[in-house]
Amino acid sequence: MELGTQLKQVLRRLRRAPLFTFLTLLMLAAGVGANVAVFSVLEGVLLKPLPYPHPEQLIGVWLTAPGVNLLNATLSPADYFIYREQNHTLEDIGLWDPDSDTVTGIGEPEQVRALNVTDGTLAILGVKPALGRLFSRADDLPSAPPTVVLSYGYWQRKFGGSPSVIGRTIIVDGKPRQIIGVLPQEFHFLDQPDAAFVALDQLDRSKMTLGQYSHQALARLKPGVTIEKADADVARMLPIVLGSFPPPPGFSLTLFKQARIAPNLRPLKRDVTGDIGTLLWVLMGSLGMVLLIACANVANLFLVRTEGRQQELAIRTALGASRGRIAGELLFESLVIGLLGSLLGLAVAYAGIRSLVKLAPAGLPRIDNIGIDAQVLLFTLGIAILTSLLFGSVPVLKYASATASGLREGGRTLSQSRERHRARNILVTLQVALAFVLLISSGLMIRTFRALARVDPGFNPAGVQTFQIEIPSAQISNDEQVPRMEEQIRDKLAALPGVSDVAFSTAVPMDGNPWRDPILVQGREDAQSGTPRLRQFNLVSPEYFQTLGIPIVAGRTFTWSEIYGKIPVAIVGESLAREYWRTPADALGKRIRVSTVDDWREIIGVVGNVHYNGMTEDAPSSVYFPTMVAKFESQPIRVERTPTFNVRSPRAGSQAFLSELRQAVWSVDTSTPLAQIRTLGDLYDSSVSRTSFTLIMLGIAGAMALLLGTVGLYGVIAYSVSQRTREIGIRIALGAQQKEVTRMFVRQGLLLAGIGVAFGLAAAFAVMRLMSSLLFHVSPVDPLTYGLVTVGLVLSALVASYVPSRRAASVNPVEALRAE
């Protein structure tokens, strides 16, 4: 039979069975569409190579320091110089850091995203400038004039795409920089937000000391070199670093040795994607289970449909049709259904991708790569063929070998045997087992979300607007004048309508900018014979704790006279106070410092613990200092020149309020733009966005699985009732009570559900451990979750079995026997 003729026959049969066609296409479209949507995200984020030449040679260069409990530490300039000069495995290495700079002299002053790099960073990525040139080694020398390379977008926006921009000068943070090049339009630096320009981070080797681990690094391996070889090469150079540069004043070389610094190299792609891979693979696996459940339901429908054609197949066999031909026709019909369902699923996926991107957790990497491309289309074709084989093979294996005996079987006067029910029962058991696993996943995420909701963040995120400004030294060279300008801005902001509190600080909770260093405690030298632990540092204004709603447990906050007088005082978090002095009150009056050449600082207050690094991480031990301090970290004076202002007001987040904030800042200095504008509530929501996204996606998958599984169980019991009408009539005629008939079918449904739950329980114990990294204060084998899911599934099975069982109990024996 020609393919076209066979296709016409299949389509004709499908038109004659509209309910069957609608249900199968609906279930397949939902299952395939969900899988294709998640695969498009998985492919765009994880599977696509980085868009640079030979991306497999690109690595991220990190350190680990188990001595101070640091798993991922950035590089210091000292590391960079030794690696670049003495490595045997790298073509080149470059440092880079995201930044935010003030640009003046070109229209209104603005704060723009920037990147600070060393001269080799862009060349390592294989970038060719669209205009001019990139940085050279000569530009990297401390004596060279400052230079800048513009992004394509900034060049177009600010200079209209004029080629004459090369050689011009722009003012960045009060300093002139010469424009030497323009980056190509398609270039994107890793997964960083588009920067307006790239500035050279000129480092003076002659002034370097150990420490300053604050620079991210990337490198390109030499051809044929593995990461393992490069890792060993870096391990060889680390002692050279310690022997080539002095420790900073107030710190000993022993401190760096006790940190046990070691290499931690990895593919650069992992720096871009982070740990999102676990989440995406879990979602892919979950929706794959939903597709299997949908296939099981479709297979059951095909079984029913093929049973209705059993006599037709037997006649064809008797007339000489081979088993292979019958099997081929059945598989062809399932393939047509699978392709049609997958085409509809592709349309569902297109809409689903847009929803996924909107619901995606904050900071989802490579989001611009997500879409339907050739790889996604190939995946759709593959999944169409796979699903067709999955649901089509069941009736093929069961009925393709139909013989003439089928002419004598299946009459309406005969009840079906257990053999004929076995395939459908197995499929339903599989559905229940898969639904159990997905419901456990959803339940654990619900428990995780509830656990996060119960955790006190340590501050009140509602109604706080935050933004950052920069006060470069070219604008105010005298450090002692910086806090006076900041206080003037604070006073202007506090005078705005609806503002209750204003403060500024180095960082705010959950902004992703941790600053950590060790402290020394006076009188506790014996306890500090090992490496001091790292603590979270923050320079804050006196109103900081009140503005953010951080409780003062003991003592008091700073005063402005202490800031201007550079009085050596400090405030510590409650966990640090209890660690050293058992109670917050006992910490008052004690003294701490950072380095041995710093002044001792008296602890004047103890505040509550704050989850600075997100709700899924424990609150760090924190230390707070005034926004201007003297003899701090071996520096004669330290002020915060890029403060983040925190403004508490019910108007936070509104455009009108932002405009008023901007005008208030400009009333003090018209050249000071606002950057990093967001609310504290947004930062809090971002810290739990991955958990909420996972909860939503697994909840959808679990609900789909429960619905499909319940429908499948209902279908099996209902079909069993319809095929056993004569048997039921005989039972009732012989005196069986309606309750006994109902109980018989309910027992059958509960038995199938129980077997499915047992298999699902075994599978869940194995699979849920893969989700442990997504959970928070919840065990992967949480007994409450397992118990509730089991009860819920059993109740669903009871309802799904009871409804058709009631119809069985209402059979009129006389009518049933007369119909036979």
Write the layout of secondary structure elements.
Blueprint: H1 3-16, H2 18-47, E1 58-60, E2 63-65, E3 70-73, H3 77-86, E4 90-104, E5 110-117, H4 121-124, E6 131-132, E7 147-150, H5 152-159, E8 169-172, E9 175-182, E10 197-200, E11 216-221, H6 227-244, H7 253-258, E12 262-263, E13 266-267, H8 268-273, H9 276-308, H10 310-318, H11 323-359, H12 374-399, H13 418-454, E14 464-468, H14 482-494, E15 501-505, E16 516-518, E17 520-521, E18 534-540, H15 544-548, E19 552-555, H16 560-564, E20 569-573, H17 574-581, H18 584-587, E21 591-593, E22 601-607, E23 622-626, E24 628-632, E25 635-639, E26 644-648, H19 655-666, E27 675-679, H20 680-687, H21 689-723, H22 725-733, H23 738-767, H24 783-809, H25 813-819
Parallel strand pairs: 5-10, 7-9, 18-23, 20-22
Antiparallel strand pairs: 1-11, 1-13, 2-3, 2-12, 4-5, 4-8, 4-11, 6-9, 7-10, 8-9, 14-26, 14-27, 15-26, 16-18, 17-21, 19-22, 20-23, 21-22, 24-25
Helix pairs in contact: 1-11, 2-9, 2-11, 2-12, 3-6, 9-12, 9-13, 9-21, 11-12, 13-21, 13-23, 13-24, 21-23, 21-24, 22-25, 23-24
